[in-house]
Amino acid sequence: MSALDIAAAVRSGERRATDVLDEHLARIEAGDGDIHAFNLVTADAAREEAEAVDAAVARGDDPGPLAGVPVALKDNMCTRGIPTTCSSKVLEGWRPPYDATVVTRLRAAGAVAVGKTNLDEFAMGSSTENSAFGPTHNPRDLTRVPGGSSGGTAASVAADFTPLGIGSDTGGSIRQPAAFCGVVGMKPTYGAVSRYGLIAFASSLDQIGPFASSVADAAAMFDVIAGPDPRDSTSIRDYAPNASSVLDRGVAGLRVGVIRELSGGAGTVDGLSADVLARTQEAVDALAAAGATVEEISVPSATLGLSAYYLVAPAEASSNLARYDGVRYGLRVDAPTTGEMNTASRTAGFGPEVKRRIMLGTYALSAGYYDAFYGKALKVRTMMLREFAEAYEKVDVLVTPTAPTTAFPLGERTADPMTMYVNDVCTIPSNLTGHPGISVPFGIGEDGLPVGVQVLAPALGDELTFQVASVLEAAAAGGAS
User: Fold this and answer.
1) Which residues face 441 on adjacent strands?
2) DSSP three-state, residue 463
3) What pLDDT sits at residue 481?
């Protein structure tokens, strides 16, 4: 059953939320040993939430639009009294004293959180192999990665452990694993969803968004979690999207742009596989057949996004992660002096990829190199904002592949960070600009694994991404290759 079907059945009294929960917990128990989507399953707490939903129904109260729907939470979302690790040893034993805003909103909507999912440590990675607790496997092929950094959540939805999941997207960490696992994943406009309670990686890039097995389910979840929050100073005031209301509008008359540099045209980035490009073209053709007008659009700075991102994001991370010092919370390795204790705790607590990015960010911000590296990256970001604004004067939405390839084998790219980083080449631009993007499954590659197609829109165009995604989903169901 879809999330919306479950919610309708629970709200009407046709099904009990506790029974729905038990079914999904049984699936997790039977299958997660092979997949490792979850770091922690919170069965007792989930049962209390499900019982509260059933009690509300029995009283004649409306438990909310997601009543009784099991949800997986990425393990970088704060949950009061429940371990929140970011898949890092440095947060060993930490139990937040508060809930993230998205957790509060999901609970108010009647959703039932079943556990915390695995991720690349502090959301730094593209394969969920950087976790201190071991990798997650792709449910479509257990020898492949699920993508990252929200690989555990994507895997949970793909394996039908939960109909819905929450992830965070700093450079593609919702959309890329959604593509690899064959589910829907959406990154909202920066500020559309509160980041309060999201453990920061790169604060100007991070955004929380939904995973689901269908566009309609993802839209329903987005509508629940979006909206202003006084506890998040970057939250957009007076923004109340209703994505569920636009899913049947179609695309007749819409102008669709295909980004030349990310879709195999002249000057395209390296590494885009032929089968992914073929599925993307089929998606574009489907939009044209549905009444959209299509044209190729050039955004030259899109090819610079990867370089700019891997200066901006590590620079912000080096600052955000300075708080993990062994003093206030988390792992502490005793040593004779405070300085030695700080060093020992961070050395033992952080994994290789996190250390790599902290060092890269610290170097980029250091005296003598700031202007040459970080300052130049900010100029590229500004140029990208300008070029995307010019593109959106010509078209309403942009279409690209979500990821350059289908899911790759576990262990294939861990020894080569640059090869791993290229996985985000198509998704990074919308993080740098703050624009929304959604990945929709559209056919399969030559290896039989899912291909994702990405729809991008200008800031506050979240509803538009869902509108176009709904048409692509229907076209894929009608016979994409």
Assistant:
1) 452
2) helix
3) 45
Among the options 156, 173, 235, 263, which is catalytic?
173
Residue span of the structural domain in which 340 resides: 308-371
Query: Which of 349, 371, 393 marks a domain boundary?
Result: 371
pLDDT digits (tens, 9 = 90+) for 353-389: 999 999 999 999 998 889 999 999 999 999 999 999 9
Q: What angle do CA 140, 143, 147 make, to 5 degrees?
A: 65
Active site residue 116: no
Q: How many domains does the chain have?
A: 3
Give the per-residue pLDDT at 267.
Answer: 73
Q: Are residues 114 and 263 in the same domain?
A: no
Q: Is 173 designated active site?
A: yes
Tell me the per-residue pLDDT of 280-322, one tens digit each, with 9 for 90 and over: 999 999 999 999 999 999 999 999 999 999 999 999 999 999 9
Residue 29 CB neighbours (<10 A): 12
Q: What gap in Å lies between CA 322 and CA 95, rounded to an integer?
A: 19
pLDDT confidence of residue 480: 47
- What global pTM score does this model have? 0.97
Please give the DSSP secondary-structure letter assigned to residue 330. Answer: S
Q: Are residues 328 and 472 in the same domain?
A: no
Q: Which of 126, 149, 156, 244 is catalytic?
A: 149
Residues 53/12, Cβ–Cβ less than 8 Å: no
Same domain, 322 and 232: no
Angle between helix 215-225 and helix 462-477 axes, rounded to 10 deg: 160
What CATH number has the domain bearing residue 460? 3.90.1300.10
Examine the residue annotation and report whether 12 is marked as an active-site residue of this protein.
no
| Pair (112, 138) in one structural domain | yes
pLDDT band at 130 (very low <50, low <70, confident <90, very high): very high
Tell me the C-alpha to C-alpha distance, in Å, between residue 464 and each of 213, 254, 350, 440.
Answer: 19, 10, 40, 14
